[in-house]
């Protein structure tokens, strides 16, 4: 029999930690999106000036704020949640490495893979997400 | 590791969220503890014992884990 003691709603502490994370994360990801769109629109990335590389790397600055949000969240959560989060990150890293090696070998074999860096990034994020979903069960 | 956490919590009429706040952990962690998917760290085990005013060994039962560890230590000593 299910009672109200079995509720799966988050605790007050969970909500406070989530709010603190959102306060860090959402401005950072919004900043990243704005800078990325601005760079694509006005960065002259398809030109020949060497300054285009500086523009191309500009979204890294707000991306660092996203990393900061995750690190600060990692420090706020308890041991068990840290284990789950770090396990997810480790899985994402392993998937990204495997993808990088696979793409590298394919390129060695003569296959030209466009956007290989983004493929590695996507694979790593997918690995992290899958591991996080598995840990939440 | 088996434990009596759920019984102790329900005896006090607390939800998992309430217990989580009292232990300063997440509800997810309380659920993992109750279902035996997570063995608490020593500081957390002491916090649980203090909260329920019972010794740690009255709440947590290492069961086969301890028997296996003792067996392994015995095998190493031989």
Please characterize this protein's 3D structure:
The complex is a heterodimer of chains A (137) and B (78). Chain A has two domains: 1-77, no CATH class; 78-137. The radius of gyration of chain A is 19 Å and the shape is flat. Chain A has helices at residues 12-42, 51-57, 60-76, 79-108, 116-136. Chain A has five helices and no strands. The model of chain A has no long low-confidence stretch (mean pLDDT 91). By secondary structure, chain B is mainly alpha-helical. Chain B has six helices and two strands; from the N terminus they run E-H-H-H-H-H-E-H. In chain B, strands 1-2 form a two-stranded antiparallel ribbon. Chain B starts with a strand and ends with a helix.
Notable traits:
heterodimer; A: 137 residues; mainly alpha; 5 helices; B: 78 residues; 434 Repressor (Amino-terminal Domain); two-stranded antiparallel ribbon; 6 helices; 2 strands; 67% helix; 5% strand
Offer a quick outline of the entry.
The complex is a heterodimer of chains A (about 140) and B (about 80). Chain A is mostly helical and about 140 residues long.
Write the layout of secondary structure elements.
The complex is a heterodimer of chains A (137) and B (78).
Chain A: H1 12-42, H2 51-57, H3 60-76, H4 79-108, H5 116-136
Chain B: E1 2-3, H1 5-11, H2 16-23, H3 27-34, H4 42-52, H5 56-59, E2 60-61, H6 64-77
Antiparallel strand pairs in B: 1-2
Helix pairs in contact in B: 2-3
